[in-house]
Amino acid sequence: MPRLLMQHAKIRGQRASIREKDLGIWQTWTWSQVLSEVEALAAGLSLLGLGRGEHLAIVGDNRPRLYWSMTAAQALGAVPVPLYQDAVTSEMQFVLEDADVGIAIAEDQEQVDKLLEMLPRLPRLKTILYDDARGLRHYEAPQLKSFDQVQREGRELLKLQPDFFAKQVAEGRADDVAVMLYTSGTTSKPKGVCQTHRSFIAVARGAVAFDGFNERDEVLSYLPMAWVGDHLFSYAEAMAAGYCVNCPESGDTVMTDLREIGPTYYFAPPRVFENLLTQVTIRMDDAGAVKRWLYRTFMDVAKRCGADLMDGRPVAFGDRVLYAIGNVVIYGPLRNVLGMSRLRVAYTGGAAIGPDLFGFYRSIGINIKQFYGQTETCAYVCKQKNGEVRLDTVGKPMAGVSLRIAANGEVQIRSPGLLKEYYRRPDDMVEAVTADGWFMTGDAGFLDDRGELKIIDRAKDVGRLAGGEFDGALFAPQYIENKLKFYQYIKEAVAFGNARDMCCAFINIDVTAVGNWAERRSLPYAGYTDLAQKDEVYGLIQTCIEEANLALSQDTALAGSQIRRFLILHKELDPDDDELTRTRKVRRGFIAEKYGVLVDALYAGKTSQFISTEVKFEDGRRGAIEADLKIREAKIFGAIKHAA
């Protein structure tokens, strides 16, 4: 990676490499300027003792200096270990201990406070660097050093040894570990995935060639740096293609910053696309009658022919004309509001996306495609080609990737992006890779007749119903949950049913969407818990569930997974309460255990159940939320057999 930086500085030194919005103004660094910053930081870090094989923790929002820290560490032969910035201290402490971190770089006071709190329990952690000095003026901890100070000291070293950086980089090898990324820990403790320079550069070059990215492209970097998707899109691919990475001012300004930058390349997990669609729907619900009529009319046209037009398939002349009009009055303005007017390609991954949600974006002219991969594969397994985008698959294997389906339906792969090892966990590595060298993804899926991969669910989660009308029917909880989350009023869903006589579900409402719906009906509420337990809201959610059941009934394999009974949880599922991972994946097993009394009530035929749940507040305090939850029955439909 450092050699790629040096190459960019040489051949496109004056082109923009990275931007950051600070106090409302975009600041830009060229490739030459970035190289100078990284050289100074690497030299300064070496004076602090960071050397080959050492681990450097990095925690904070997406910031240029934090990306430079990765390259500086790599130049010294050290390994950057990015952490989730919203992780609570116990989660952060686990990674810092597991990775034997000696130096950490923190963005601001919030992250510094977490690290200082953990210092007595982290004897290996000797130095904490901070980027943003606001609020830290009177901190006297001897372990603290400012980013600026370390760079100043590094520049003094470079005056004495001008070739220091180049010599350090020259000692690096392609098979050195470039980064250690921790898995989300959906089912167990997170594992440190060691990926080499060779792996990430190979997959980055493959991805860049696949979509034709170059130095003129722009990407918005706003997803956690600790997540493999951000490391691929905002770091490795930028190093491979030489395009510009843009860091928003804050999480609250992402949509504004997105519109200002107008990226050509964009990535978001399904939940982000869901939130964007929810905002659009709310705005249209509040619009005047004429605007609502125009929106509904032209969205019907878009659903009918938008995706076909994008993929170059035949479309009737009348529909082409209507779509062109719709592009002027609806689709174009909508893409502009979303900040996607210049997009050439948008990707979604990390979890399955609802077909209807996927279809919505393609219908309005946004070239959204799916990809498939894991932390252990550098997020590089399958992608969809332009003109070959289908709602129910994740595309064909990428260049250099081999794929097979095991006897139990598990997807297994060979890839240039395969991890080198799990840090200090050889037993886990043995369990993850077959004797003949195939990585076991843990996902259940199959290849269709076009050679495209379709993911059903996590292999361990796929089960069967036992007893009842659909005895022996397939149960795929993630598939069901994603189908429910398409509805704007449902934020999260947790499905149960394996080895039981029916499928039941917990629902988290989207308080923004449902709150807007309630206000338009003059329905008062005092907060999430109060809103979630109103009869009118239960009726609204029941309608959504029954629509999903009807759709499930048309799938002969999953007709038995229709939801019979459901309840709306009294609190939002939260990573701080261990109910979701930091990438917002549902920890279904933990939830089933934590809310066991509610699961039992669903299957015992009860109509309500009292529960008291402990919650953690942002300031560290603990409290309890109590509620008497209602349980409702949902209508199910007979399986509809497809024509042969």
Which tags fit this structure?
644 residues; alpha/beta; Rossmann fold; Luciferase, domain 3; 4 domains; 29 strands
Task: Provide a count of the helices.
Answer: 21
Give the % helix: 25-40%
The dominant shape is: globular
Instruction: Measure the end-to-end span.
Output: 53 Å
Q: How many DSSP E strands?
A: 29
Structural class: alpha/beta
Neighbour order of strands in the largest sheet:
4-3-5-6-7
Supply the CATH superfamily name of the largest domain.
Answer: ANL, N-terminal domain
Instruction: Summarize model confidence as the mean pLDDT.
Output: 92
Task: Walk me through this protein's architecture.
The protein has 4 domains: 2-259, ANL, N-terminal domain (Rossmann fold), CATH 3.40.50.12780; 268-372, no CATH class; 393-458, Luciferase, domain 3, CATH 2.30.38; 463-633, 2-Layer Sandwich (GMP Synthetase, Chain A, domain 3), CATH 3.30.300. It is globular. The protein starts with a helix and ends in an 11-residue tail after the last strand. It has 21 helices and 29 strands. The protein is an alpha/beta fold and 644 residues long. The longest helix is centred in the middle third of the chain and has 22 residues, at 289-310.
Summarize the SSE layout with pairings:
Layout: H1 2-11, E1 16-22, E2 25-30, H2 31-47, E3 55-59, H3 64-75, E4 79-83, H4 89-98, E5 103-106, H5 109-118, E6 127-130, E7 144-146, H6 147-160, H7 164-170, E8 177-182, E9 192-196, H8 197-211, E10 218-220, H9 228-241, E11 244-247, H10 254-261, E12 265-267, H11 270-286, H12 289-310, H13 317-337, E13 345-348, H14 355-363, E14 368-372, E15 382-383, E16 396-397, E17 402-405, E18 410-414, E19 421-422, H15 426-432, E20 439-447, E21 453-458, E22 463-464, E23 474-475, H16 477-485, E24 490-496, E25 503-509, H17 511-520, H18 528-532, H19 535-553, E26 563-568, H20 588-594, H21 596-603, E27 608-616, E28 622-630, E29 632-633
Parallel strand pairs: 1-11, 3-4, 3-5, 5-6, 6-7, 10-11, 12-13, 13-14, 25-26
Antiparallel strand pairs: 1-2, 8-9, 9-19, 14-15, 15-16, 17-18, 18-20, 20-21, 22-23, 24-25, 26-29, 27-28
Helix pairs in contact: 1-2, 2-3, 2-6, 8-9, 12-13, 12-14
